[in-house]
Every structure is written in structure tokens, then in C-alpha cells.
Amino acid sequence: MNVEITPNYSYIFDFENEFIHQDTRVWMVKNWTYVFYYCGIYMAVIFGGQYYMQNRPRFELRGLLAIWNTLLAMFSIMGACRTAPELVHVLRHYGLFHSVCVPSFIEHDRVSGFWTWLFVLSKLPELGDTVFIVLRKQPLIFLHWYHHITVLMYSWFSYTEYTASARWFIVMNYCVHSVMYSYYALRALNFKPPRSIAMLITTLQLTQMVVGCAINIWAHGFLQTAGKNSCNISEMNIKLSIAMYFSYFVLFARFFYKTYLSTNARKGKRPIQVTASSTATNSQYIESSTLTGKSDVQSLLAGGQANSKIKAQ
């Protein structure tokens, strides 16, 4: 490992030290079409599952939800602890340009590189969030499955390019998911964290979207000034990333306003609506949202219908 670029880790596991980024990149590039198969199977399962569950009673799955959320929380916390030091180290010693344009977090840091690879792979099991919603017969809104599919595709695409700015996105996502899935694990175990924690999670997610857009703007500027040979990120990647982050920001801001700042939210009113994709009421969706531990954008799915008692994702 290049000790000049990587932080001084107190301990490195054998599986981290044995990580060879070239092998994983070759495999990801060679099998990039798999991501479309995964997404196709995912859509067939969730929509086929909805049809199958139409005339059947819903499952509670509280025990499985607690285990699911706990495992995802533990994974996210570990990922944050193993990737954040690299970002902090680079910012302190090499500056913003390096953090956005140089993929040393994969090429020179086996610890961060290993957890970057796991981050991409983790987007596959995270599709299981939707399975819980289907089996619990909760509303399945477009943004839910759209978010899962686009994040999986974008993450895989970015890894094949060794997109340097991804170090920011990965660290932010790990950190936010650490808090979010821990919160849902507690909810699934019948603990009742204060409402301020839910509001904090939404605020963290909004911040994540703002920083994501800013990083892409900086990356575009660096490409123009330093040239493509000096900044390892493609124009296409910037366009895709900023489109995703900006759309998510708009939706999160709308959710935040309706949940915490609107007149109905301040008065504590509970508007009950039926979603376009389900005959279940909003109150049913609220119940599921506190248990399934959905990933970032899933917290927005009830944004247009949510009331002041929704726990923000």
C-alpha cells in the first residue's frame, strides 16, 4: 500500500489486505450486462409478487425486519469506518482536487478499495427492501423501485470507470445508512426513538444530495481546467450523477416541507390518501415505513401523502 496516500489504519484485516482492485474491475467490466438481468428479475419479482399477494393476507415479518435492519446497519457502520478515514486523509493532505479527480481510494488503498467494491455489491441485497413491502402489502410507488434500479446501475457503471468522485458518494451513503438503518432496527424492535431523530435523518439525506450536486459541479469545473487526463471522471458520469442527485434533492425537500414545515404538519393533521399503486391507505404505508428500513429515496415515497407523524427516512 502507498503509505503516502493512504491513512495510517490501526488495523487491516487479511481480507482487506488481499484485495486486488484490478481483478474486481475486470470482473465488473466483463459482466456489466448482469446488472440489467438483476434489474429485470427484480421487477418481475416485485410486480409478480404484488399480483400474487392481491388476494392473500399480508405478512408481518417483524422479526425478519429487525434482523434485516440490524445487519444493514452493522454493514453500513463498518463501511463508514473503513472509507471515511481515507476521504478525510486525502482532504487534509491533498485537497479537494485529489478527492474529486484521483481514484487513489481504489488504486492505492486496499481497505477503502475493498469496501468500495462491497458498497457496489451491496446494492443487490438492498433490493430486498422492496420484498418486505410487497409481502407486507404496502404501497409500492414508482420512486421506490426506480431508485433501487438507478442506484445499482450507476454504482456498477462508476466502478467500471473508477470514478474518482465516487469516494464522496460512498462515504456519505455509508454514513447516512448507518444512522438510518440503526433507527429502523430500533423501530422494528419496538423501541420508540424521538421524532427529532427522524427529522435528523431527513436533514442528513438532504445534505447528502446538496453535497452530491456540488461535487459534480466541481468535477465538471476540474475537467474544464485540468483536462480529462488529470481528472478521472467522464462527462457522461457527471451528467447521470447530477441528474440523479438533483431529482432526489427536489423530492427530499418536498418531503421535508410537507412533513415538518407545512401547515398540516404544524397542526398535527393526518391526511389519509390512497397511493396510485395500491389500494392500501396512507396509514398502512406509514406503519411499513417505520419497519422496513428502506434506502434513501424510499423515504420520499410517501412525501406527497405523508403526515406529521411519518418517521422520515
TrEMBL record:
<dbReference type="InterPro" id="IPR030457">
    <property type="entry name" value="ELO_CS"/>
</dbReference>
<dbReference type="GO" id="GO:0009922">
    <property type="term" value="F:fatty acid elongase activity"/>
</dbReference>
<comment type="similarity">
    <text>Belongs to the ELO family.</text>
</comment>
<feature type="transmembrane region" description="Helical">
    <location>
        <begin position="198"/>
        <end position="218"/>
    </location>
</feature>
<keyword id="KW-0444">Lipid biosynthesis</keyword>
<keyword id="KW-0808">Transferase</keyword>
<dbReference type="InterPro" id="IPR002076">
    <property type="entry name" value="ELO_fam"/>
</dbReference>
<feature type="transmembrane region" description="Helical">
    <location>
        <begin position="238"/>
        <end position="257"/>
    </location>
</feature>
<keyword id="KW-0443">Lipid metabolism</keyword>
<dbReference type="Pfam" id="PF01151">
    <property type="entry name" value="ELO"/>
</dbReference>
<keyword id="KW-0276">Fatty acid metabolism</keyword>
<feature type="transmembrane region" description="Helical">
    <location>
        <begin position="165"/>
        <end position="186"/>
    </location>
</feature>
<dbReference type="GO" id="GO:0005789">
    <property type="term" value="C:endoplasmic reticulum membrane"/>
</dbReference>
<keyword id="KW-1133">Transmembrane helix</keyword>
<feature type="transmembrane region" description="Helical">
    <location>
        <begin position="35"/>
        <end position="53"/>
    </location>
</feature>
<protein>
    <recommendedName>
        <fullName>Elongation of very long chain fatty acids protein</fullName>
        <ecNumber>2.3.1.199</ecNumber>
    </recommendedName>
</protein>
<keyword id="KW-0472">Membrane</keyword>
<keyword id="KW-0275">Fatty acid biosynthesis</keyword>
<dbReference type="GO" id="GO:0019367">
    <property type="term" value="P:fatty acid elongation, saturated fatty acid"/>
</dbReference>
<dbReference type="GO" id="GO:0030148">
    <property type="term" value="P:sphingolipid biosynthetic process"/>
</dbReference>
<dbReference type="GO" id="GO:0042761">
    <property type="term" value="P:very long-chain fatty acid biosynthetic process"/>
</dbReference>
<feature type="transmembrane region" description="Helical">
    <location>
        <begin position="142"/>
        <end position="159"/>
    </location>
</feature>
<keyword id="KW-0812">Transmembrane</keyword>
<dbReference type="GO" id="GO:0034625">
    <property type="term" value="P:fatty acid elongation, monounsaturated fatty acid"/>
</dbReference>
<dbReference type="GO" id="GO:0034626">
    <property type="term" value="P:fatty acid elongation, polyunsaturated fatty acid"/>
</dbReference>
<feature type="transmembrane region" description="Helical">
    <location>
        <begin position="65"/>
        <end position="85"/>
    </location>
</feature>
